[in-house]
Write a structure and sequence with these properties.
539 residues; 30 strands; alpha+beta; 29% strand
Length: 539
């Protein structure tokens, strides 16, 4: 026996905060059951709760639309009690438009014309669309040009689309949105995720069974491996785009390609020799099949990653090269020069373009956006140049102190700038440059210290430091999360593996590279079947 219907205006609430209206809650659950295909369960909930999903008038209206009873549905629409006449007219237009198209499909042209003239036009809604519909009468091909195919006007499928449009148009209290419960749950998970400063797991790890909160153990903070192959200070390192390789460059005039094995262990693949000066930086090609190495004020060499062979040397008489990078299409390279110019070459070493003047410094980072339109370089001690190659337009980021390095975000929208005053600044470079946030805590007095974006959605900032530690901040809040000890010399550079959220590498003056991963011993309730961690030896 069905329970007596609960009045929807009695204000009954549920939940500890008393803000959830019981009737709305039950309707949303009912809507979810129907959406999931559990029609019997949805009907049973309506019966047992005494709270119908929709009013009898709305149910009649929806059934009339489904059955193609257009005139009846327009009449019933006005019985629903909508106070906004604009919504009524817009909904009527959707219904009558479908009526018009189905009449055309049945080749009942006079009836279609009558609907257009006497029913649709008087609504005074969407005049442009009315003209397009009128053109369909004159030329059936016009329907094709407008994207109205025969399938769009046939039977149940097209009418269900009309119901979807009506659902979005009518107030949610009249027709409960199709996936309202899913939206609320997703929103709740999103809010929890955004509030979690240590969040560094994939969305598949989120659960409805408990509130989400990551701990510090989701941030790479444990030394898993110490790589020792360089014979002097290591100045730069960078993971490949696919995360399968790590490249490092050193004052010992060499660069090394390391291979990241399937289970996270890192091993030496090739030592790249031939430079006559310290190797200041490296750059991976987009497909990670080649790599550039730049000698300090010397030459750039292009190497094959698979074989370790040198493929090309780039040099310019009387001028040293100080930085390097790839065209996004992989067909050329660019470099900053000691004469403060920026040069672009094809892969065979032919110079394509050269911008002279105060475009770069003798110590300079460079980057190019993924669309190849903007080149970014340090042009003065306290300024970064944003050069638009196509528009021949320049913008400047003016800093308060000397700039030592910068890093471009993966989405090309932000720049991470390291300053001599022991601050790291986050700049938005969409449109006019805007300072977003500052990160403090690391030490820098004499050396070039580099930082990077990393983690899930690049939600973290990592940096080296002259106090031998690696520092990690939450990108959006600026909160310093961790300072990782281990090195015995200044940490010059860090790189976060783009394919492994839980792998970070750091390079130091102590001639070692440390591979950081999760604190394996403190992790709880985690599936380890997809990873195997190689722990460094501890004395």
């Amino acid at each position: 026996m069905a329970r007596p219907r609960i009045s929807q205006g009695d204000g009954e609430t549920i939940g500890s905060q008393g803000v959830i209206k019981k009737a709305e809650f039950i309707k949303i659950i009912t809507r979810a059951l129907y959406s999931l295909g559990y029609d019997k369960s949805g009907a049973l909930l309506e019966e047992e709760s005494g709270i119908p999903l929709h009013s009898s008038v709305v149910n009649l209206f929806m059934q009339q639309v489904t059955d193609g009873k257009w005139d009846d549905s327009v009449a019933t629409l006005r019985m629903i009690g909508l106070s906004d006449e604009t919504i009524v007219k817009s909904a009527s237009f959707l219904i009558l438009e479908q009526k018009f198209l189905e009449l055309l499909k049945m080749e009942k042209v006079p009836a279609a014309l009558g609907t257009l003239r006497s029913e649709i036009v008087p609504l005074h809604v969407n005049l442009n669309r009315i003209h397009e519909l009128a053109a369909c009468i004159i030329s059936p091909l016009q329907c094709v040009r407008l994207g109205i195919s025969g399938q769009d006007t046939e039977g149940t499928k097209s009418r269900s689309k009309i119901l979807e449009k009506l659902q979005k148009l009518l107030p949610a209290a009249i027709m409960i949105p199709e996936k309202r419960l899913e939206h609320l749950v997703e929103r709740a998970l999103y809010v929890q995720r955004e509030a979690c400063v240590f969040h560094n797991t994939s969305d598949s790890d989120l659960s409805l069974y408990s509130d989400h909160q990551c701990g510090k153990n989701q941030i790479p903070s444990q030394t898993l491996q110490i790589l020792q192959a360089h014979n002097d200070e290591i100045w730069f390192l960078q993971f490949s785009h696919n995360g399968k390789y790590l490249a490092s460059s050193s004052k010992d005039q060499s660069a090394i390609i390391w291979e990241v094995k399937e289970y996270g262990q890192v091993s030496l693949k090739h030592t790249l020799c031939g430079h006559q000066k310290p190797v200041s930086t490296v750059s991976w090609s987009l497909d990670d099949s080649q790599i550039l190495t730049c000698g300090q004020e010397e030459v750039i060499k292009r190497w094959d990653v698979s074989s370790g062979k040198c493929l090309q040397v780039y040099e310019k008489s009387g001028v040293g090269l100080i930085s390097c990078g790839w065209f996004p299409d992989g067909r050329g390279i660019f470099s900053g020069m000691t004469d403060r110019s920026i040069c672009l070459w094809d892969l065979d070493g032919r110079e394509l373009e050269c911008w002279k003047g105060q475009r770069t410094l003798r110590i300079s980072d460079m980057a190019i956006t993924d669309d190849g339109k903007r080149i970014i370089s340090i042009c003065r001690e306290s300024a970064i140049l944003l050069l638009d190659r196509e528009a021949k337009f320049e913008r400047l980021i003016e800093e308060v102190d000397m700039i030592t390095s910068f890093s471009l975000s993966k989405d090309n929208k932000f720049l991470l700038v390291n300053l001599i005053n022991q601050e790291i600044h986050l700049w938005s470079i969409e449109g006019d440059p805007k300072l977003v946030l500052k990160y403090k805590g690391h030490k820098r007095t004499r050396f070039i210290i580099r930082s990077c974006f990393g983690g899930l959605g690049q939600a973290f900032i990592a940096s080296g430091s002259e106090d031998s530690q690696v520092y990690i901040w939450h990108r959006c809040s600026g909160e310093l999360l961790l300072a990782l000890p281990g090195h015995s010399g200044a940490v010059n550079c860090v790189s976060w593996n783009p394919a492994n959220l839980h792998m970070l590498a750091s390079a130091s003056d102590d001639q070692t590279i440390r591979i950081w991963g999760l604190d394996h011993f403190n992790l709880k309730h985690r599936d380890y079947s997809n990873s195997s961690i190689h722990h460094c030896n501890r004395s």
